[in-house]
Amino acid sequence: MSKEHATLTIEDKIYKLPIVRGTEGDKAIDIRKLRTETGYITLDSGYMNTGSCRSDITFLDGEKGILNYRGYPIEDLAEKCSFVEVAYLILIGELPTREQLNDFRALLSRFALIHEDLIHFFDHFPPQASPMSILSTMVNTLNNFYPEMSGDSDEDLMIISARLLSKIRTLAAFSYKKSVGHPLVYPRYDLSYCGNFLNMMFDKPVRPYVVHPEVVATLNKLLILHADHEQNCSTSTVRLVGSAGVNLYTSISAGISALWGPLHGGANSAVIEMLEGIRADNNDFEKYIQKAKDPNDRFRLSGFGHRVYKTFDPRATIIKRACTKTLEALQVEDPLLEIAMKLEDIVRHDDYFISRDLYPNVDFYSGIIYRAMGIPTDMFTVMFAMGRLPGWIAHWSEMMQDTDDRRIGRPRQVYEGPVQRDFVPLHERS
Ligand code: SDX
After folding, report:
1. What residues contact residue 308 under an 8 Å CB cut-off, 6+ apart?
2. Ligand 1 in contact with 171 (CB < 6 A)?
3. What pLDDT, on the 0 to 100 scale, is given for residue 406?
4. Does the C-beta of 301 come closer than 6 Å to ligand 1?
5. CB of 306 closer than 6 angstroms to any ligand 1 atom
6. Is the pLDDT assigned to residue 17 strictly greater than 60?
7. 271: closest CA among 365, 182, 170?
8. Nearest CA to ligand 1 atom 45
9. Of the candidates 376, 374, 348, 351, the residue with the CA atom closest to the CA atom of residue 360
């Protein structure tokens, strides 16, 4: 612990609060003893300025547009790794050797199937059920089928992580096949993580699916770019639920539910709905720009803005490049891409958005790529969840194994309700 401290003066009394510095220079004031020493708490709705934990997993710098997983820049990882390699890195903390990668891949193959009884669950969701509600339900119920693993030991964690990473892919593909009334396609041992998912999604007895290398490469890149993002809403949810001693599957199920929100991972499908709205309005961009600026209108430009990135989201830069490359490779012409680029150009030259540091975020172009792959809009956030799973698991495990600072998450509040008053019996109330 450094000897640096901040001083706080309250009612003429001076308090010293320790300063904590991270390995990349991020700095914090340690207020863990603030209430016991001063009787005061801090107030920070939305946790805009509050660090919930120390973590070794991901570093991001919103001013410089930096995002590193376990010290490695995502630009390198997205270009040079497979998603399985990056998942191993995020979970274990080091890039795998060839042998470790082969062992991890073998575990993913071993756990690719889901219990046949689970398949009957799909028959009882209504046809219009959201794939995110199905995914959250199915992941939560995995604990009923595989209750034995705690995730406490590294070996346990490897098994429980590989099982979940592999099964989420099968659950997602099966829920899609059920939603379109097609026969289920089971995982194959001869296909890669992403190739297997695409084959389970799109293979048909009447027309076998040809796994396109460009699509597999782009899907790997997209999942890598979504793999972790420090203490975002859904990861914080996984940590908070897990801090009560809840098993991994149920904690992850809570994270899936949080990610579903249109302000969070649900934005990638909301972007497509917004772009289709602009197209249906004969490209009336001004209408949407004015709605976004209207303080009385709750409408926001989906895919723009970020709590942390105040320059650019480095992931959006990579995804935008991959978007044009993939659509060219697949010879897909999507009018929404041109609308998206035009909207970005308008926003990037409008003082309202510039003054609020609003740039495209990870969700702005990703949906256009998923569309080109044939993935339905209501499954875009499922894709986000598949990508984010290694990060969620790593944070749950880091929190569970934090022996000296692990406690149940329980924030405080400032009460502004009625002061204490006498009870009024029913017969006296008017
Ligand atoms: C993700 O946290 C993460 O790391 C998340 C994520 C991850 O990988 O886990 O990166 C993934 O969730 C990306 C964000 C996806 N969501 C969207 O694209 C939804 C649209 N964006 C916004 O709703 C908003 O930008 C948030 C939710 C992303 C951030 O909200 P903040 O940090 O609470 O900022 P704010 O709402 O207080 O906005 C500050 C100002 C406001 O104007 P003023 O009150 O100052 O006049 O900027 C305006 C807002 O009205 N603003 C927008 C806007 N986003 C913010 N105005 C129009 N369109 C927008 N998109």
Report:
1. 60, 62
2. no
3. 85
4. yes
5. yes
6. yes
7. 365
8. 356
9. 348
Residue length, the chain? 430
Task: Please report, for the chain, the start and end positions of each structural domain, with discontinuous segments joined by +.
Answer: 66-229+384-395
> Pick the catalytic residue: 203, 306, 313, 395?
306
With the most atoms of ligand 1 within 8 angstroms of its CB, the residue from 304, 357, 362 to mutate is 304
> Within 13 A of 156's CA, how many CA atoms are on the CB side?
13
Count other C-beta atoms under 10 Å from residue 48's C-beta.
Answer: 7
**Does the pLDDT of residue 404 top 90, yes or no?**
no
How wide is the angle at C-alpha 52 spanned by C-alphas 49 and 54, nearest 5°?
Answer: 115
> 160: CA distance to ligand 1 center in Å?
34
Q: Which single residue is written with the structure tokens 């002061």? A: 419
Considering only CA atoms, which of 251, 212, 234, 262 is closest in space to residue 374? 212
Please tell me if the CB atom of residue 367 comes closer than 6 angstroms to any atom of ligand 1.
no
Q: Which residues contact 97 (CB under 8 A, 6 or more apart)?
A: none
Q: 363 an active-site residue?
A: yes
Asked if pLDDT for residue 1 goes beyond 60, the answer is: no
pLDDT tens sequence across 176-189: 999 999 999 999 99
398 CA → ligand 1 middle, Å: 28
Known active-site residue 306: yes
Write the pLDDT tens digit of every residue in 235-289.
999 999 999 999 999 999 999 999 999 999 999 999 999 999 999 999 999 999 9
Atom 19 of ligand 1: nearest residue by CA position: 263
Confidence of residue 316 (pLDDT cuts 50, 70, 90): very high
pLDDT tens for 201-216 read 999 999 999 999 999 9
The CA angle 18-23-24, to the nearest 5 degrees, is 110
The pLDDT value given to residue 403: 82
Catalytic residue among 229, 313, 363, 395: 363
307 lines ligand 1 (CB under 6 A): yes
What's the pTM?
A: 0.97
Centroid of ligand 1 to alpha carbon of 263 (angstroms): 7
Mean pLDDT, rounded, of the chain: 95
**Tell me, which fold does domain 66-229+384-395 have in CATH?**
Citrate Synthase; domain 1 (1.10.580)
Most ligand 1 atoms within 8 A of CB, residue of 55, 222, 269, 306 to mutate: 306
Whether residue 5 is predicted with pLDDT greater than 80 in this model: the reply is yes
